Amino acid sequence: MTETTPSETKSSGVPPETATEEWRLLSADVAYTLWKAERRVSHLVDPKADAEAWAAAAADFRVLVRYVLRALEKEGIKLRYLGPDNSLPVKSDAWRTQTARAAWLFWLNARRRVFPPTEYLEAEAWQHVAADQRILVRKVFEELGAKGIRFAP
User: Fold this and answer.
1) What is the pTM of this model?
2) Mean pLDDT to the nearest integer, 132-140
3) CB-based contacts of 35: which residues, under 8 Å, 6+ apart?
4) End-to-end Cα, the chain, rounded Å
5) CA 62 to chain centre
6) Which of 42, 71, 103, 115 could potentially form a cystine with 133 if both were Cys, beta carbons 3.0 to 4.6 Å apart?
7) CA distance 89 to 31
8) How far apart are CA 98 and CA 151, in angstroms?
9) Which helix (H) or strand (E) segment is 142 a member of?
10) What is the DSSP secondary-structure string of 84-127?
């Protein structure tokens, strides 16, 4: 994989911080961790089946996750490899706000890949799934924090 030049990232609307190999690896780890958590909701643990399913879904799922992470980046919500002393404290108000925003964007992006955008229906559907989605995404970010992937302050 090659890195994108600053002029290419600016012209494509990609935040420059997300055009590095380090960020691509970080986003791939986020994608796999989120995919695994979502899979656990509806499937029994089966390492062989999981490996096959991930192999089939990985490329598209990474694209979805990178799109959302770049949208978060543009809003000032940044994930980086950070130590616990220089990142947002887990379960702080800022961390909870950022994970809630991430949950919404991950859910909305996945929904819009299936259904056309309709704000009223999206708002209504979100009311039914918001609590579960936030819980799922917060668990993902806690797991990522254990791997050193944390929100920058």
Assistant:
1) 0.87
2) 97
3) 54, 57, 58, 61
4) 29
5) 9
6) 103
7) 22
8) 8
9) helix 119-146
10) GGGSPPTTSHHHHHHHHHHHHHHHHHHHHTTS---HHHHHHHHH
- Residue type at 42? S
| Alpha-carbon torsion, ordered 78, 64, 104, 102, to 10 deg | -20
Task: Give the pair of three-digit tokens for residue 109.
Answer: 């992006």
DSSP one-letter code for 19:
S
Q: What is d(CA 16, CA 22) in angstroms, rounded to the nearest whole number? A: 12
Q: Which helix (H) or strand (E) holds 133?
A: helix 119-146
Structure tokens at 137: 């995404």
| Mean pLDDT score, 101-115 | 95
Beta strands in 9-106 (DSSP E): 79-81
For the chain, the average pLDDT equals 91
Q: Whole-angstrom Cα distance, residue 47 to residue 61? A: 19
